[in-house]
Design goal:
Mean pLDDT: 85
Strand content: 15-25%
Distance between the termini: 59 Å
Number of helices: 10
Helix content: 40-55%
Largest sheet: 8 strands, mixed
Low-confidence stretches: 243-247
Radius of gyration: 22 Å
Number of strands: 8
C-alpha cells in the first residue's frame, strides 16, 4: 500500500462544510447600500463549491430583500453549481430571510431558521412620494421633455395617472408570479395545499415550519455536525472588499443608500 493511502487511512479527512454568508440588502452596487449582488458574490460562490472537497454548502442568510432580479441571479448561480458539483445546499436563516432574502433561501435543499427568525414576505412592493402639491406651494415649475409618452412614468412631481398605476401593477404582478413559481418549484409538496402563502405575510420560526416554508428550527453548526459528524469543520467564504470598503470611505450616494437600506430592515422591526 502506498504511503499516501496509508496516511489517509490513519488520518481520515475531516468533512468540510463551505459556508457562504449572505448578509444585507440585495441590489446592484450603490442601491440599498447593497452588500449582495450576483456580480459581487460570483467569485465567492464559485470558491465555496470548488475549493477543496466540501461535503455540503451552507448559506447563512440575514437579508430583508431588495432586488428581485439579483435575488434570482444569485439563487440560480447556487443551483447551477450545486447540480454541477452534486452537493447538497442548506440555508440557515438568522434575523430575517424575507422577500428577496427568502428567495435566496429557496436555493437550498433544506431551509432552517432560529425560532425568532422572520420568514416569508413573498410579495413585491414599489413605493414612492407625490410631491406635486409641495412644489406648487413653493412656486417651483417642473419641466420634463420626453420622446415616448410612457417615458416619464409615475413622476413624483406630477399628479398620479391611472394608466401609470396600471402599468406598474402589471409589472409587479409579473414579478410576483415569478416569485411564486420559484417558491413552488423549490418547496414543492412541503407547502400545504389550499393555503395562500403568497400574500406578503410573514411567519416566525416554528410557525414558518408549519407552513412548509422551512424544514426545521436549528442553527448552522449543530445541524451540520448532526448530519456530518462532530469533527465537521467549516470553511467560511466571504466577498473580498475593496480598499475603500475596508477603510470605510463614503460614496457619493451613501446617505441615500443608508436611508433606503434602513427602510428595508425597518419593515421587519429591525
Amino acid at each position: 500500500m502506498k504511503l499516501a493511502s496509508r496516511l489517509r487511512e490513519m488520518f481520515p479527512r475531516r468533512p468540510t462544510v463551505a459556508v457562504i454568508r449572505l448578509y444585507g440588502a440585495i441590489g446592484v452596487s450603490g442601491r440599498f447600500g447593497a452588500a449582495l449582488s450576483d456580480h459581487a458574490l460570483a467569485s465567492t460562490i464559485e470558491r465555496a463549491f470548488r475549493r477543496g472537497k466540501p461535503v455540503a454548502v451552507a448559506l447563512a442568510i440575514n437579508s430583508p430583500g431588495g432586488s428581485p432580479t439579483q435575488s434570482a441571479l444569485i439563487a440560480a448561480r447556487i443551483r447551477r453549481l450545486a447540480a454541477e458539483k452534486n452537493l447538497p445546499v442548506f440555508a440557515f436563516c438568522e434575523d430575517v430571510a424575507a422577500s428577496g432574502g427568502y428567495w435566496l433561501a429557496t436555493a437550498a435543499d433544506e431551509i432552517w431558521a432560529d425560532d425568532n427568525s422572520v420568514i416569508g414576505s413573498i410579495g413585491v412592493i414599489s413605493a414612492g412620494f407625490g410631491l406635486q402639491d409641495l412644489i406648487a406651494r413653493h412656486g417651483v415649475e417642473r419641466r420634463v421633455h420626453t420622446a415616448g409618452q410612457s417615458k416619464s412614468m409615475l413622476d413624483p412631481f406630477r399628479p398620479e395617472k391611472p394608466e401609470d398605476v396600471a402599468r406598474l401593477t402589471r409589472v409587479l404582478e409579473r414579478i410576483h408570479a415569478n416569485f411564486r413559481a420559484q417558491v413552488s418549484s423549490r418547496r414543492g409538496g412541503r407547502l400545504p395545499e389550499g393555503e395562500d402563502l403568497f400574500t406578503g405575510d410573514i411567519w416566525i420560526g416554528a410557525e414558518a415550519q408549519e407552513k412548509g416554508l422551512i424544514d426545521g428550527v436549528g442553527h448552522l453548526v449543530p445541524v451540520m455536525k448532526a448530519k456530518y459528524g462532530p469533527k465537521t469543520r467549516f470553511q467560511v467564504c466571504v466577498p473580498k472588499r475593496s480598499l475603500f470598503q475596508r477603510i470605510g470611505a463614503p460614496g457619493a450616494a451613501s446617505v441615500v443608500d443608508a436611508i433606503e437600506d434602513r427602510g428595508l430592515w425597518a419593515r421587519f422591526g429591525l
